[in-house]
Specification:
With about 375 residues, this protein is of the alpha/beta class. The protein folds into 2 domains: about 5-165, DHBP synthase (Alpha-Beta Complex); about 165-255 and about 295-370, 3-Layer(aba) Sandwich (Rossmann fold). Helix content is about 40%, strand content about 20%. The strands form 2 sheets. The chain has a 7-stranded mixed β-sheet, sandwiched between helices. Strands 8-9-10-12-11-13-14 form a 7-stranded mixed β-sheet, sandwiched between helices. Strand 1 and strand 2 (about 40-45) form a beta hairpin. Helix 2 crosses helix 6 and helix 10 (about 265-275) packs across helix 11 (about 280-285). It is globular and about 65 Å long. The N and C termini lie far apart (about 70 Å).
Amino acid sequence: MNRPQNVVRLLGNLETTAVERAVSELRSGRPVLIESHEGDVIVLAVEAFEIELAAQLQGIALGKARLVLPAARLRRLGLDRQAAGSFALPELDRDRIETLALKLDAKADAPVAAATVVDKAAIELAALSLILPALIVVPLTAAARIDALVAVTVEAVSAYRKSATKTLHIVSRAPVPLEAAPTEFVVFRGGEGLRDQVAIVVGEPDLSQPVPVRLHSACLTGDLFGSLKCDCGDQLRGTVRFMAENGGGILLYLDQEGRGNGLANKIRAYKLQSQGWDTYDADEVLGFDLDQRRFDFAAEMLNALGVKRVTLLTNNPEKIGAVKRAGIEITSHERVIGRPTAENVLYLTSKRDRAGHLIDVEALTARLSVQD
């Protein structure tokens, strides 16, 4: 579509803008339009599906709607799947939809079709929106098109993460004295979903030498409230103390709550954990794989701060690989271990056994026994 040049200048990259508007709509519980060569569809989050909407969409769907679920949720329904798929929805039956998408003991009740290009774009939008990855997809005819809906193309969705990373930029910075050391907080905006990301520069690190760096994903429950279910708060504060005592460093505080699933989904998973589910199994019930996080934009933050070589403080081999792939030289990496508690030892064991985290759980258990 041809647009006046002044409109392009006002809105910037129109494809990126369209994705960000679609993310806002899905988070607000409203449907969006995805356009593709396969045909246009309306996409609505299952968590926003109400009876009134069912009646409105039923007339448009003409019995051709489908429920799109990711591979993780399909496995929980008893299917051996490594990719997303969809169930046909001859009727927009709310109970059936909620059962397939959310119920703990649900089983597949019909054949599952392979995900289309549009279905995959819908799942990606859900991930960017931090909502449950369960979508109702309604194919549209030309006569049924709803012009008021925010529209986005499949191509724009698939290109978004890479292009958005390049938009990351510093919007503010200021000295902030902490108990452990003087620091500077540097706030970045851009990247995935326009969420703010923060670099905390501890002391005065020598950028000509490898800089101690930690990529720390935000954890409201652990960082702020001292939750005993994880070791995040200990890792955060311990890292700052380590940097203060060893010539400085940089902690990237990343808005990636719940391994990238978002705060609402993290708390949903916590509810399941309180019923006895392992942390990763709880996520899979909700439709999430082991880890939804990406770290390419963290490398962009380091580049903006002039950091080329790092000593990475992490237990997560995925972070090590992501930083290397982004072109940052890692001269060494060191473990960051928090205090063990009766509530977090199984969590730490799962991280080691199922996600390959470099954690000596036996040593932590021994420490816990001594504390007791």
